[in-house]
Amino acid sequence: MQIDQKMVGDVMVVTITGDITLNQGGDVLLKDKIQSLLQQGQKKLVLDLGGVAYVDSAGLGQLVQIHATTKNQGGSMRLANTTKKLKDLLVVTKLVTVFDSYDSQKEALASFS
Amino acid sequence: MDARLQVTDGSGRKVVPINKAIFLIGRRTAADLQLNNADVSREHAEIAQDGARYLLRDRGSRYGTFVNGEQVTEKTLEHGDRIRLGRTDAIELVFMTDASSSTHISGLREIGSDADLRQMAAILNGLRALGSGRVLEEVLTLVLDSALDVTKAERGFIMLARPDGELEFKTARGRGKITLPGTSFTTSAKIPREVFQTGESRIVGDLMEGNLAGLHDGTIAIGIRHVLCVPLSVHPMAAAPDQGIAPRVIGVLYLDGRERSTILSQQTRSSLEAFATQAALAIESARLYAEAAEKARIERDLLVAAQIQQALLPTGSFETPFVDLAASSLPCRTVGGDFFDYLELGARGFGFGLGDVAGKGAPAALLAAAVQSNFIAQAPVSSDPADTLTRVNTALLRRAIEARFATMFHGVVDQDGHLSYSNGGQEPPLVLQANGGMLWLEAGGPVLGLLPGATYEFDSVLLQPGDLVVICSDGVTEARNAAGDEFGRERLIETMAGCHGGKPETVLERLFEAVRVFSQGTPQGDDITGLVLRYRGAR
Lengths: 113, 539
Known about the structure:
The complex is a heterodimer.
Chain A: E1 2-8, E2 11-17, H1 26-39, E3 44-51, H2 57-72, E4 76-80, H3 84-92, E5 100-102, H4 105-110
Parallel strand pairs in A: 2-3, 3-4, 4-5
Antiparallel strand pairs in A: 1-2
Chain B: E1 4-9, E2 12-17, E3 22-26, E4 33-34, E5 45-50, E6 53-58, E7 65-67, E8 70-72, E9 74-76, E10 82-85, E11 92-96, H1 114-130, H2 136-151, E12 155-161, E13 167-174, E14 178-180, H3 190-198, E15 202-208, E16 224-234, E17 248-257, H4 260-263, H5 266-312, E18 317-319, E19 323-330, E20 338-344, E21 350-357, H6 361-378, H7 385-398, E22 406-413, E23 418-424, E24 430-432, E25 438-440, E26 459-462, E27 468-472, H8 474-477, H9 488-497, H10 504-519, E28 528-535
Parallel strand pairs in B: 3-4
Antiparallel strand pairs in B: 1-2, 1-11, 3-5, 5-6, 6-9, 7-8, 7-10, 10-11, 12-13, 12-17, 13-14, 15-16, 16-17, 18-19, 19-28, 20-21, 21-22, 22-23, 23-26, 24-25, 24-27, 27-28
């Protein structure tokens, strides 16, 4: 799993490529990344998941966790480019209402303005 | 080939040609080979050329001349003979005539006297006899004691590489088979580290111990020390030396003492290097054995855990006057994160549930046990299935383990066929109706243990006699074949299509068989659990 970040205006866009799974330690990597961004004072986050093929249950738990952490620290995290597979997973687990999810990075960014 | 002497002393090794009819060896400046050592007399010995022969003669030296350990007054030299002048072997002379100009004689051939050879052989045999079953600590102690014997050093220690590549102090011994505290070697870290990194032996003369205050141990003299430090290297198996696969350095053997003569001699170093090769093998096998034993212990623990987990699950078949069911769980590892359970709830009917904890193996199994026992405790005191899941969610959040959660379906069926149910993030179960229809049980709420204040809905359907409720964990729908395709919901529907009106055991077996056939031996990536319940009608 690879994590890239870039600033667009005052929003930090975090792009993830690869699987978010327990086996590859992706869940912890992601948590550490978001935690460090929050510590740096980044409150507006977009998580671009367009390059994520597979999220296992540990990865899903971590997504919920970092969403809650962001919220608790006065920030806001939005998902962009969620694949159909991930959307289905969010629907089955009834977690779809937890996340603000957008079909593109552009829409996710626009939601902050 | 010309005759020559290979001279090795504390400062290194050189080869001197014997290029005169009478070749004088001694301490005086006019000698052909001048040696500065208190044991060497001014005119100690000479080598006289006599035709093709070379004759070594003692010139009435004070401390004597020795060839291969025997004192001589006159002797014809053979290629490879070792000449010692005086009482110690601080200076080693090897007479050579053969074309093989090797200045590097490896291993046991370096050992001078028969006594040394016997000693080495005994030690190597001892090490081989150690085999793999010995405790690492014992092996280290034996290696150190033997090394002290071979080298006549006073004390020594072994450091071994940790998995992270750092050297770790293991055992220190002194002459007389005593164990020394590691603190005796306060200043010695630099040399072992260098030897470990380069894989090359180091001989250091006149090393002044820096921290004299730390050396009050009566057996350890304060002052000038001479150090001999060799790598403990394991050579890759079945690799010929010329294949260029570097040996793996697993640690270092460090020795020191005051007596310069033995420690600094080339012979000691070679003996020790040969010895270290055997020692490294013994140490490595003891270490591997310990690791294997530890692994076996963990595996035994896991097997016991698996038995306990199976015991925590109820039996895989059960019947009441109005329902019967079949259930089974196949963990992908020894223990799993899936569970099922059921219980009679008096007038409310018969309760059943199937859950799946995020993750796999032992961590998931522990959490699964917690979720299952919460479920069984809460179900009888809840007003409906949604209430049960809300209570389980709350209970799990009291001891939330970060980002760990569970999914679970829970239903209650009464004797008239009213099925009320709720679902915490599990794939919706399927109802195979006796009349050939299918419906999904969609109501519920989010996964359990993540969201405080999550709300769960419940819904009811009326079952007809012969209707089957099929619940499975995501290990079924997400089972993969060699091509990486998932079993998926469509295949689940196809498989179940022919099962209307069947017996729970038969339907469950059909489902598991379909997953088995589909995955074609691809290793199971997740726990697979299924529960099939049949409503038999009011009695």
